[in-house]
Amino acid sequence: xxxxxxxxxxxxxxxxxxxxxxxxxxxxxxxxxxxxxxxxxxxxxxxxxxxxxxxxxxxxxxxxxxxxxxxxxxxxxxxxxxxxxxxxxxxxxxxxxxxxxxxxxxxxxxxxxxxxxxxxxxxxxxxxxxxxxxxxxxxxxxxxxxxxxxxxxxxxxxxxxxxxxxxxxxxxxxxxxxxxxxxxxxxxxxxxxxxxxxxxxxxxxxxxxxxxxxxxxxxxxxxxxxxxxxxxxxxxxxxxxxxxxxxxxxxxxxxxxxxxxxxxxxxxxxx
Length: 271
Prior knowledge:
Blueprint: E1 3-10, H1 14-25, E2 31-35, E3 38-44, H2 50-59, E4 64-70, H3 71-81, E5 85-87, E6 91-94, E7 106-109, H4 122-131, E8 140-144, H5 150-157, E9 162-167, H6 170-182, E10 188-192, E11 202-208, H7 211-223, E12 225-237, H8 241-250, E13 254-261, E14 264-270
Parallel strand pairs: 6-7, 8-9, 8-11, 9-10, 11-12
Antiparallel strand pairs: 1-3, 1-4, 2-3, 5-6, 12-14, 13-14
Helix pairs in contact: 7-8
């Protein structure tokens, strides 16, 4: 059983915390706990690159504390800190041990582990908000970087006919598989992969990842989008807006709308 590294930054601003989440996600940190004036980040010990972490910390003039935790202890901590998330009156994301939310249109039950996408983070929250105004009925959907599988699960609940959900992290795939089964979903194909399938077209593509991955793959995402298809993006900071919009225009993707939450963006594009 693999140990995990816990990195804690203290006495930081909300802006610094958001910036660190974005940069550490690119170093394959798998989970984050954001609290007032502090941030904890977690990744497998075998994947930890202290030199890269020191570079980021030095660049922003920050110090951090490092500790090692066991996987089983991590799960206990995560579960004890996990609180339900309610996105407007639209979706409730909760764990099995929480009381059901009566006022939400849809309920998603997940096992709270380290995969990204519980609804707590602004990017997942906004993706869920944006999905409310999209017609998923009988649509073919691709969830690129599925994390917990929460967006794929919601897509099925909203009527999608076929959903492909991929992630390059085995832990996320195992967690997403468990969550899909726990929500009685039967139209989601979960695959361990970092490659966008080029042998199929999708009506809706969901990509809650980060700026660099999105820019690297935007041409392929465009090509795999059906005519009049929708590409819904997040994992983006406000300062990423210009680069994403410019790239979208280059590939003839139309900006439909942009929403913001806690210095993060979600952008809806149309083919």
